[in-house]
Amino acid sequence: MGDVGHRLAEIWRVLKPRGLYKGTMLSQHDAQFARGRPVAPDTVVRGGNPKAHPHYYCDLAGLATLFAGFELLSLTQQEQRRPGSWQWHILAERR
């Protein structure tokens, strides 16, 4: 999970037990998944701008791995306002 895994590990580290994480992550169901220059597994940079940031797309199994130290309280995959734009909405508690 690379950089995303390291970032979530740091979030877990600084949260107190029972602390909450609320956020979103791009879904592999998204129409933009795998479009761009691959920079890591399931991660692409779109466009030629040297300042463009990587986009990581995850599936349910990937989320379970990333959030192994959390209890998932709510997890939904929702299409956003732009058709074809899908995100996971996550509410998790640090164990």
Structural class: alpha+beta
Number of helices: 2
Major β-sheet strand ordering? 2-3-4-1-6-5
Q: How does the overall form come out from the CA principal axes?
A: globular
CATH topology heading? Rossmann fold
Tell me what you see in this structure.
The protein has helices at residues 2-14, 60-66; strands at 20-27, 37-40, 43-45, 55-58, 70-79, 86-94. It has one domain: Vaccinia Virus protein VP39 (Rossmann fold), CATH 3.40.50.150. The chain has a 6-stranded mixed beta sheet. It is an alpha+beta fold and 95 residues long. The longest helix is centred in the N-terminal third of the chain and has 13 residues, at 2-14.
Can you summarize this structure?
This protein is an alpha+beta fold and 95 residues long.
Key terms:
95 residues; alpha+beta; 2 helices
